């Protein structure tokens, strides 16, 4: 189990939450995506450049694909902006870090129900770090850099859906551009995912998530 996942499991044990906690009522539409201003040395980032990849309503199997697609989107968020930087001009390293932080703000506010406790913030930070690794790799590769890591479904194990929520249990793996490089919290190995989502207008948002090494 990853450090971030362990923190979430500990949180669930302390609060008495089960894998299917009772969701809080949600608005018909997802909350507005916050925008953090980047410093002047990052002029290529405008306020509307980032649009998080959402999870639309669908069957459980469709939702598994959408969850993995959204995580692939977060892991690679900002890559095209870095790759499109003026040829011959290095992207400031601080800009990469701030862009990853901005991506984390947008994705955590858009893909998840409201979570302000320490365990969830640690989880969001761990994904931010992995996004930053990808951005740094694109920065090093320059404008000619190509290829993006992505999540791949290995098998669907058990899923169900009701009007109040969707529960998913599946195995997946993250395929980085270069295998063996970077720290992906063991997501680049077969991983068992447990995800609970609740409806928010035309989309679903994640209310609980846990990952651990896949059995076998």
Characteristic key phrases:
216 residues, alpha+beta, Nuclear Transport Factor 2, Chain: A, 22% strand, globular
Number of domain modules: 1
| Radius of gyration using CA atoms only | 17 Å
How many DSSP E strands?
Answer: 5
Q: What proportion strand?
A: 15-25%
Could you state the order of secondary-structure elements as H and E? HEHHHHEEEE
Give the class-level CATH name: Alpha Beta
Strand order of the largest sheet: 1-5-4-3-2
**Termini gap:** 14 Å
**Uncertain regions spanning at least 5 consecutive residues:** 1-37
Describe what you observe in this structure:
By secondary structure, this protein is an alpha+beta fold. The chain has one domain: Nuclear Transport Factor 2, Chain: A (Roll). The chain has helices spanning 3-15, 60-76, 79-83, 93-111, 118-141; strands spanning 55-56, 150-162, 165-175, 191-200, 203-213. The protein has a 5-stranded antiparallel sheet. A hairpin with a 2-residue loop joins strand 4 (191-200) and strand 5 (203-213). Helix 1 (3-15) packs antiparallel against helix 5 (118-141) and helix 4 (93-111) packs across helix 5.
What is the fold's blueprint, element by element?
Layout: H1 3-15, E1 55-56, H2 60-76, H3 79-83, H4 93-111, H5 118-141, E2 150-162, E3 165-175, E4 191-200, E5 203-213
Antiparallel strand pairs: 1-5, 2-3, 3-4, 4-5
Helix pairs in contact: 1-5, 4-5
């Amino acid at each position: 189990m990853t450090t971030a996942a362990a923190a979430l499991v500990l949180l669930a044990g302390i609060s008495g939450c089960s894998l299917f906690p009772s969701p809080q009522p949600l608005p018909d539409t997802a909350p507005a995506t916050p925008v953090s201003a980047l410093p002047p040395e990052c002029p290529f980032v405008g306020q509307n450049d980032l649009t998080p990849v959402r999870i639309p309503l669908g069957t459980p199997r469709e939702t598994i694909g959408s969850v993995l697609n959204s995580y692939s989107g977060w892991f690679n968020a900002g890559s095209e902006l870095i790759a499109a930087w003026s040829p011959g001009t290095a992207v400031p390293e601080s800009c990469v870090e701030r862009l990853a932080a901005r991506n984390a703000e947008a994705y955590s506010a858009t893909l998840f129900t409201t979570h302000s406790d320490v365990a969830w913030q640690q989880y969001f930070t761990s994904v931010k770090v992995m996004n930053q690794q990808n951005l740094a790799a694109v920065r090093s590769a320059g404008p000619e850099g190509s290829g993006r890591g992505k999540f791949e479904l290995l098998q669907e194990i058990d899923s169900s859906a009701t009007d109040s929520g969707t529960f998913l249990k599946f195995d997946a793996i993250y395929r980085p551009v270069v295998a063996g490089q970077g720290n992906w919290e063991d997501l680049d190995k077969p991983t068992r995912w447990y995800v609970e989502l609740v409806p928010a207008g035309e989309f679903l948002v994640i209310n609980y998530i846990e990952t651990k090494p896949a059995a076998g």
